[in-house]
Design goal:
The chain is mainly beta. The protein is built from one helix and eleven strands. The strands form two sheets. Strands 2, 4, 5, 6, 9, 10 and 11 form a seven-stranded mixed β-sheet that branches. Strands 1-3-8-7 form a four-stranded antiparallel β-sheet, with no helix packed on it. A hairpin with a 4-residue loop joins strand 7 and strand 8. The chain starts with a strand and ends with a strand.
């Protein structure tokens, strides 16, 4: 089992930046690939980004490449999502995810997820 707690969401103007954090506890953090998904009102949850156990591989939704960056610090049991050049359409609840299979995260499949953090981008 792994527990995930997101933080760092908030209200930001278009063009601004936010960094989300996800603190993990439970089983060994480095055993898991980590990711982020998001869900906007009235829409399905969509894949945002994933990172493998040691940070050597990352994967992003095509529409977000170049604006979002995922990273992890295994010493702190934390994964991050740096979001730059934010747009109103990035408004959503962002969830941290974990799975022992990195490739499943890219398919929007995962065993664990957090409670989410709201990101609102104003125009």
């Amino acid at each position: 089992q792994v527990q995930l707690v997101e933080s760092g969401g908030g209200l930001v103007q278009a063009g601004g930046s936010l960094r989300l954090s996800c603190a993990a506890s439970g089983r060994t953090f480095r055993s898991y690939a980590m990711g982020w998904i998001r869900q906007a009102p009235g829409k399905e949850r969509e894949f945002v980004a994933a990172i493998n156990w040691n940070g050597g591989s990352t994967n992003y939704a095509d529409s977000l490449k170049g604006r979002f960056t995922i990273s992890r610090d295994n010493a702190k049991n934390t994964v991050y999502l740096q979001m730059d050049s934010l747009k109103p359409e990035d408004t959503a609840v962002y969830y941290c995810t974990a799975d022992d299979n990195y490739y499943r995260l890219g398919l929007n499949e995962y065993d664990y997820w957090g409670q989410g953090t709201q990101v609102t981008v104003s125009s």
